[in-house]
């Protein structure tokens, strides 16, 4: 693969930025983002997603632009824009289509356009290809070519990174597949897998995440059963996990941009092709109902109008990512039950929390105390390190420590405090 291949990465978020920085080590690479604020912060060497360190960003040869004209005439385009769902949980392909229009204006004959955004089988060839054709006036499969390569990275995961994971690739032709295998082969030490087709690569990604969602839903369902029996799922899992082939998923809130969203893409595709997906949608229902179920269990242990401190708002531990956080469901249900709720999260951006959820985050826990309940919602490292003294300071006598993630299972609570866990 010629190192003079010019690569444009469209969408510089959690996925696009690490990929673009890694590609820039091997190819002349430009990153385009629709957000001028995002480009400005990256130009200052700051990545708010915390996926690329400031020194790495500053040392990178990656060029950055918010101007669509900057990507004209590149050889390879990689699209890494969001694929959310709308209020009705239907796939929202507007960002992908908007990126197609931007790339469509920019491509010249011979270009390859690869999508990394998570979609359902058929989106690349049946929706993106025609849009690229319409805008560019070029013929797909003749003048330009499509590819798909799903992204598997995981926010905050420092082990499975863009340069270590196995990359699945598929091109519109065997030649394009080989070209993508060569490009991504330079990027990752984890090897490249050539999928049978673009549809197969799209399907592979969407079921990876749907499978996680369903497995977690099963654990959430048995969590509910065992609560009625008065036993903790965490105790049960410790015992079950001693079997060699037990799948040790943990219960909890399923948020974020991927696991709670992608199954709806699979469901839409299934319904469009005449199959009603039972397990996929049941998993979604169970996991989406988990926040309210947890809030109801906690509320049942409290007097009316309790003062509650919720620790953690991001969708998972040790990341600043607030997208689709289900902690919000817990907070809202507690408030609906008549309680007063304060929220703290040392990683979340206060402005984003206010904008997305209308939550005013506590600036710090200094001086906080007198709560009737502390809810451990997200096991950020500082919370996981709490000792008995921290609970003694935060809670009023008789207060309840509600541990959603089982992070305080090893902590002996001070006398007079009560504990509850899933
Ligand atoms: N976050 C993850 O860990 C992860 C993992 C695997 C796959 N994915 C998939 O990767 C895709 C991207 O996810 P993400 O988490 O990086 O999203 P993100 O929201 O972090 O980043 C997307 C970026 O694209 C930009 N953008 C949106 N529309 C654009 C357009 N038309 N032109 C140029 N830029 C545009 C946004 O400004 C934003 O900076 C999604 O399909 C997601 O499902 C994400």
UniProtKB/TrEMBL annotation:
Descriptive protein name: Nucleotide sugar dehydrogenase
Signal peptide: none
UniProt record similarity statement: Belongs to the UDP-glucose/GDP-mannose dehydrogenase family.
KW Oxidoreductase (keyword) present: yes
Domain UDP-glucose/GDP-mannose dehydrogenase C-terminal: 309-410
UniProt keywords, alphabetically: NAD, Oxidoreductase
Domain of life of the native organism: Bacteria
InterPro entries, sorted: 6-PGluconate_DH-like_C_sf, NAD(P)-bd_dom_sf, UDP-Glc/GDP-Man, UDP-Glc/GDP-Man_DH_C, UDP-Glc/GDP-Man_DH_C_sf, UDP-Glc/GDP-Man_DH_dimer, UDP-Glc/GDP-Man_DH_N, UDP_ManNAc/GlcNAc_DH
């Amino acid at each position: 693969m010629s190192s003079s291949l010019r690569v444009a990465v469209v969408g510089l978020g959690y996925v696009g930025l690490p990929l673009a920085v890694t590609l820039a080590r091997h190819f002349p690479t430009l990153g385009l983002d629709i957000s001028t604020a995002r480009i400005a912060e990256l130009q200052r060497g700051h990545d708010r997603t915390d996926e690329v360190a400031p020194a790495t960003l500053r040392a990178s040869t990656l060029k950055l632009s918010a101007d669509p004209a900057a990507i004209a005439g590149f050889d390879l385009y990689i699209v890494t824009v969001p694929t959310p769902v709308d209020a009705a949980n239907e796939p929202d392909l507007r960002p992908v289509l908007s990126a197609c229009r931007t790339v469509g204006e920019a491509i010249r004959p011979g270009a390859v356009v690869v999508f990394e955004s998570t979609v359902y089988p058929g989106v690349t060839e049946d929706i993106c290809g025609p849009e690229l054709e319409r805008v560019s006036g070029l013929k797909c499969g003749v003048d330009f070519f499509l590819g798909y390569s799903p992204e598997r990275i995981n926010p905050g995961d420092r082990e499975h990174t863009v340069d270590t994971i196995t990359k699945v690739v598929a091109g519109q032709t065997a030649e394009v597949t080989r070209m993508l295998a060569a490009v991504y082969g330079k990027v990752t030490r984890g090897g490249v897998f050539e999928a049978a087709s673009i549809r197969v690569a799209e399907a592979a990604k969407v079921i990876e995440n749907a499978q996680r969602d369903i497995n977690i839903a099963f654990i959430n369902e048995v969590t509910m059963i065992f609560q009625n029996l008065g036993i903790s799922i965490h105790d049960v899992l410790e015992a079950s996990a001693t079997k060699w082939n037990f799948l040790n998923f943990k219960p909890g809130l399923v948020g974020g941009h991927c696991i709670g969203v992608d199954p709806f893409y699979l469901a839409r595709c299934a319904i469009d092709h005449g199959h009603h997906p039972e397990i996929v949608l049941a998993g979604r229902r169970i996991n989406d109902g988990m926040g309210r179920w947890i809030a109801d269990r906690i509320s049942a242990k409290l007097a009316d109008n309790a003062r509650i401190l919720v620790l953690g708002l991001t969708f998972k531990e040790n990341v600043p990512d607030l997208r689709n956080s289900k902690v919000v469901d817990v907070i809202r249900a507690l408030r609906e039950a008549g309680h007063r709720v304060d929220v703290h999260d040392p990683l979340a951006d206060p402005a984003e929390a206010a904008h997305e959820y209308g939550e005013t985050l506590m600036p710090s826990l200094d001086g906080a105390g007198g709560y009737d309940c502390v809810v451990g919602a997200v096991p950020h490292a500082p919370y996981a390190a709490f000792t008995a003294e921290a609970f003694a300071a935060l809670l009023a006598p008789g207060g309840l420590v509600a541990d959603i993630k089982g992070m305080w299972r090893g902590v002996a609570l001070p006398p007079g405090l009560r504990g509850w866990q899933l």
